[in-house]
Amino acid sequence: MKHSGKLSTAERRYKILSMLSERGSIRVEEIGNSLGVGQDELHEDLTALKDQHFIEYEGGRVWVVSKHPGDVTFADRMLAHAEEKQAIGRAAAELIEDGDTIFLASGSTVYEVAKCLLERQIRVISNSLPVLSLLSNCEHIELISVGGALRRSEMSFIGQLATMALQHLEVDKAVVGVYALDPEQGIMHNFIPETMTDRSIIDSGNQIIVVADHSKFQRQAPTFVAPFGMIDLLVTDRQTDPAIIDRLLAAGVRVIAA
User: Fold this and answer.
1) Are 89 and 113 in contact (CB under 8 A)?
2) Is 78 exposed, middle or buried (0-12, 13-18, 19+ CB in 10 A)?
3) What is the gyration radius of the CA atoms in the chain, in angstroms?
4) How far is CA 114 from the centre of its chain?
5) How far are the Cα atoms of 34, 60, 125 from residue 30, in angstroms, in the given order?
6) Global model pTM greater than 0.85
7) What CATH number corresponds to the domain at position 19?
8) Are residues 150 and 127 in the same domain?
9) pLDDT 10s digits, 70-88
10) What are phi and psi of 60, to 5 degrees?
11) Nearest to 213 by CA among 113, 104, 73
12) Does the structure show a pLDDT above 90 at 63?
């Protein structure tokens, strides 16, 4: 993580969710000892996570509660903001160099990145079934699949098996799509089981490249994934509000508007 000194609120809550992703449940006392925070501050964190991020805690123990909101299918999302996603895909692909080991996460925008990498000499690791299928005939691309439970609406492999595999991986660059971007909080999601997998993907990358069109800043989502401080570079489109871009730049995020 990119922090020094005392953890910010977002980083602290990220740590809590990371512990839960690894262990499923954990005692409140262990969280407090690990983070070095007092009971009042920890209670504030857990209350916020319970209200906004679908965790529960009772009797001194905290655990994740999975909820499954209505999903928009991968095919439908490919049609939304298609031109912007294609431009983002081309710009992000230019950041990938021959010889790189990269992770391509799930999502329609990441798929547009993959479409621009067909001729590259690279190693690709992915949990996205569409990406794996697209690149499967590219003999010059070494292709590695991350297993897990298939989330059919997203066509992605998620869950404990995926998270366990990701804990043993380190890649040069991780290209990540997002459900929503909150200018204050960071990356947000609407589905906790995939959130845990996305967080592990982010942890695996030496450089984190987020690809997101302007509409992702207009969404709200209940689940926190990671603070902006963990993003190295955001590739978005030219319709993203310049004021938002300025705030990201001030937070140390490099931004490319394709």
Assistant:
1) yes
2) middle
3) 18
4) 17
5) 6, 10, 34
6) no
7) 1.10.10.10
8) yes
9) 456 777 777 788 899 999 9
10) 80, 10
11) 113
12) no
